[in-house]
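Handout, tutorial session.
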Amino acid sequence: MAMANGQSLRERKAEELKRETQLQLALVGRKKVLEKGKREKQQKKKPLGDLLTRLSLHGIQNAVIRPAYTHVPRSRNLDKQLAGLLNHMYVRYPVPSFLYDCCRKETGDPFECMHDLYRQWFVCLAQGGSFPKLVKGFMTSREASVFLGAPAANRIHENVWWAKMRMAGIPLGTIEKLNERVFAQYFFDDPYGRLAEVIQFFARYHAQMDRVSFGEITDFLAWKLRNDRRFSLKGRTLSSVTKLTNEWHVLMQKAKLGQSIEWKGLGIPPWEYEAKQRIWSVEELRSNRDLMNEGRKQKHCVYSYVHWCVAGRSAVFSLRAYRKVVKDYSEEGMLIWDKTLEQTRITIEINSSRRIVQVRGPLNRAATDEEKGILRMWAGEKGVS
């Protein structure tokens, strides 16, 4: 068979077909984005009564400065219509966009029971009240000031923690990771001061941690805070916490299954890719048994993520490569590859926003360039960022 650039005609045609398939997927994705934008433009302006039923205004009804019936919506986008109505009814001065969520129903906030409190914050800022005085006991005056510039994508309680970590001198990238891994699941009252100790620990030692040790220590602390109410960081050094972390990782690798637990996950079906010398596959791990086996194979602590997976905060996938050996043929004549000759594997964590937040190989090593390339291809096809 004719060869060119070291490739056979069949291999060149296969690569061209893959490129065409990838281009088609990209065009389909772009078409969906355009169609969504078109649908938003075609949305109708909702009647006032409909908009009001979507809002939760308990506790702030008497703070209205303009009657709702005099509002004229300008946008056809529902989110903008709701924000516009709130602005009309309550707002004289700018309010951080993340605070508007407390005036909406069914936000998915795990601390939605605190929205009555947050609505008082909203009105205070909207009408020029003393915000530092109102939040005294939750935040210092400087933290209250920093809180107003917190990320719009965060939930309100996450931004209180964000402000506290920012004032402690922790870098923004580290704050984002700590919020996602540790603080997002806790309200900010912190009655025993354990979370304040975590903030002070990372403020003191974050610069001495590399990426791997930071991830391992963060996983350990998140697990201890959730499972050991007596655990405290008071008086502990980086070396002592590192020692505890290493011991905990060994325990996680030896963990017994106990009760069988399963969860829905993201529902992304198994994926397979045929490379020149390897067969790559990605599958979602959706049970505590899957995570236990993955952790033992990779010698890391993914088994401790059962709680986050059950809660829907995380999804775990396993990307594996096998030697390109044919095992059999299906009834349709398709090749069935031998999946016993595994060559490499990485474990992937994806958050609830379908964003990859961690990629770990055996012993928590980083992914190779080849693994990263396959991961990008899979993520692009599955709509994962």
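The second record follows below. Compare its token runs with those of the first.
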Amino acid sequence: MTMTEQFSTLDVEPSQRLAFWNQLGRQTYSELVVEPRRTGSAFGGVLLRRSYGDMLLTQVTTTPASVQSESQEASGRDAEHAFVLIQEVGTSDHVIDGRPLRLEPGTLAMNVTSRASTIAFDEMTRFLIVKLPVPRLAARVGNLQRLIGRRVEARDAALLSDLLRTLLAQDDVVDEPGWYEAITDVIADLIALAFYHVPAAPAPSRSVVAERWQRTVRAFVDQHLAAPALNAAMIAARLGVTPRYVQMVFASMSTTASAYIVGRRLELAAQLLTTERPPVADVAHRSGFTDLSYFYRSFRKRYGVSPGRYATR
């Protein structure tokens, strides 16, 4: 575990400060855009950052600004994350997945990378933010999608706030077996405790959930076509669900995991053959086929000609 890192716009030329901050935000959180709240005003910010395994803790202090984050579909390499944000100083207005709310000192709200959000504040503001993979937090909270955009009062978030500040202020580096897991579990438990008395928002409809998972699974497959081990079990392990659930997602698309994966690999192979024209064996490898004869048979069945003939048409 590294010690707490500190980043400040004061270390950057004034003309480069906003660009520096936006790049830092994308690296730390997700795709977002920060703009000064008042046109022509100078922008300043300080970020403290510390990681514990797959959990990231940050404290952010900035001058008045607006922050817009577009929805980002999960794709294995960059799985969906949850953000738990606690207002420390100032007041901020949020719109999370179309739901408006205001945070005051000590209050808390949650969002995930697949939901768009905006934040606006007209005074110097400081936040504490926890970033966790969705499956990790869902194991404690349950269906956290129902808690997105729900405000937690300061009294219910106090224990979590105190621990986060303590962890960010630590100077020592702890390197003991199981330490990351233990700290992450405690934070996740405190988040679940904070939301204990919060009424859940209405659950999304079955069709909305199915469509979201279809997009997530399709994106994961496209990102990992070259991986020979790509199958329902791999998808399930990376997305934090069971293989049976993954098979059900494919069934909702009127296909199976294996059939869909082979079909997408063949489409990739056809694209490579007509654009880059590498050797057929190289195309098979880059498309995730480990058995060259199986690749030939599957390609001919799909396109009616051999890969070599297809490339010269």
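Points raised in discussion: The radius of gyration is 23 Å.
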